Amino acid sequence: MNEAGLNQQTALTELFCLGRSGDRSRYNQFLTEVSHLLRKKIRYCIAESDVEDVLQETLISIHKASHTFDGQRPILPWLYAIAQFRINDYLQRHYSHRQHEMDIAELADSLAAPRDEAMHEEDLPWLADMSERNQQLFKLVFVEGYTMKEAAKAFNMKETAVKVMIHRQIKHIRHQMGVS
Amino acid sequence: MDTNELIQQLAQSTPSQKKLFGVRRLLMFISLFLLSYVFVLQLTLGLRDDLWSQFERVTFSIEVLLLLTLLVVSTIASVLARYPDSHQYDSVNYLPFIVFAVLLVFLLAQILLSMEAVDSHQLTASQHGFECTLWIAASASLPAWVLMSMIRRGASVFPRQAGALSVLTATAIGCLTLRLSEMNDSILHLLVWHYIPSFVFALVGAWLGKHLFKW
Question: Which chain B positions have a beta carbon within 8 Å of A42's beta carbon?
Fold first, then answer.
């Protein structure tokens, strides 16, 4: 680390320690400087539209984890580790959600054409492999056009449970169709 | 909410939690606790009659040494795991897994190379099975709970790894005490009832860590 980096680290550590001892203005200054520093890192990994959300989550995490920093160790690795943890957390949520949305959207598209015509079970051979309940749920969402929320209400289930069930079935169908 | 507003809010409630113990001090406390625990367990179980003659066997000595190393490095890694900047000690964080893998490979190699001559008399003298796994699980409960509580009070950024490490430390205690007391040198027995269950427990620990160390 160069001299400027070391100076920055010393200054931040000092501000943090003063903030911890109850000096609110120093703590405010610490968080402001940290936000400038981490915004760059977060912007590097995450889409611009979500940078501020992740930055705010990171600042809250820094605040919550402040008791784990004793002022003796370098502060920058500590800050960056927390930021990286929140970035990873965000990316994990983002991609699992995106994959889920894509699966449902793709299947909805593929089923969109026959939706106007009368759909028979023989048009959907893979439906036969599903349990009765899953078949009904599938038809409700993809044939009759119910939203996930409506389907969940009709089946007296949680919306997330319906999403998970459909997600699993789509994976199963993809596997059967040999689509990766 | 705007980031500046959030900063204002956070600054109004400056951190109120007590500062955690430093790494060295905490490590000293945890080591003392684990040492006392090992001592009490060993007193309860007793030592095997032929322990000193067993130490003349290179394979036994290496195994005990590896278990001791596992206990020491996994204790250090567990303590470090509670701090977000533990990645600075990456070599220490992964060392317990490497030592455990070496231990398993060492035992497997003994089976494959038939280095270990099993004393049939000793085998029949004390033939344990599932009881060993139960003992390891039971003896690991308290240290695992202590270590997990300790990590939970921190802010681990590798929750799965931290969970696995705490359980690995705890099971190493059970394995070590049992190895020094049980008159059974069958490598297959050690693998099936001691070390493979420890590996499974570590996986459970990783799963627990994911859920327990959220912050």
Answer: none
